[in-house]
Amino acid sequence: MKLFVQVPCLNEEGTLGMVLDTIPRQIEGVDQVEILVIDDGSTDRTVEVAREHGVKHFVRHARNMGLARSFRDGVDYALAHGADIVVNTDGDNQYKQEYIGELVAPVVRGEADIAIADRQTARIAHFSWFKKRMQHFGSQVVNYAAGTRLPDAASGFRAYSKNALLKLNVITQFSYCMETIIQAGNKRLRIASVPITTNPKTRESRLFNNIFQHMAKSGGAITRSYLMFKPHVVLGWLAALFAVIGAIPFIRFFILWCMGTAGGHIQSLVFGTTMLVAALLSVALLVIADLQRTNRVLIEETLERVKNIEYGRVDHTQIPGIRAALVSGRPSGADPAYSRED
Predict the structure, then answer these.
(1) 10 Å Cβ neighbour count for 27?
(2) How far does Cα 321 stand from its chain's mean position?
(3) Which end of the chain has fewer CB atoms surrounding its CB within 10 Å, N or C?
(4) Are 143 and 202 contained in the same domain?
(5) CA pair distance 337, 175, nearest whole angstrom
(6) Which domain holds residue 27?
């Protein structure tokens, strides 16, 4: 079993050495440990420091592409080089790499597809009271959207099985953390939580300028991911809300009409009609969104098959359509008159 530890970096020459020195090279249940440094447009000696510490695997961006893109490119590289498990950590030495063995253990044992480190944020000294509360609240929101029970959804210290990585598709440009949990939960992947402690803070986050920006970006990522899987829930509630609000003026008008005092209430009927039209539009959007969700599922299943072939998990010659094409010498489903010249 091959494990890749990927370290996304942006100008981490001061801390990267400490991270690399503490990554364990021997882990129970793992035959080979490889380290991958993802240079996300660094302008300092990050790459040189990595090479000095014996790193042989690199993904380099000519300019800063963001954490989500770095994660995605790192995963592609690791899978292409035979990874069975990918651990994602940080180059700022926030996480104690000694926990990697404990982090991958549930995945190695086959008990989980993803293992996420629980930083126990309530005990982190440099977190303010407000940040601790927001971390807890954010985790609860993600858990609701994903159907999970994770204490620290924002943690970036994670272990992914190959099976999980083949099923996940990172779309967001901000951070993959929330999106992958929501996807994993809705795709019924098993997620484990592993309690850890963290190192003292070395620098401010480069993902956001302040906690409010982080909340806004994370909220947007959560909303998009939730809508991708459950648009019918949001649009269904909107349709019901508009329908109830729209029905009230008509019920009121009917009661007044029965009492013989309905005159002069046309404005409320106009408002009610507007709300009912909004309800109908919500229902129409619900139908369209549900059809799009069906297409997304089919596309993701196709993409997973492609990944299985690309990363060597499936022998493409054993897929019936392709095998038949290889035997017959023409593409599956092609016209019998098809021929080729070698």
Answers:
(1) 22
(2) 32
(3) C
(4) yes
(5) 51
(6) 2-225
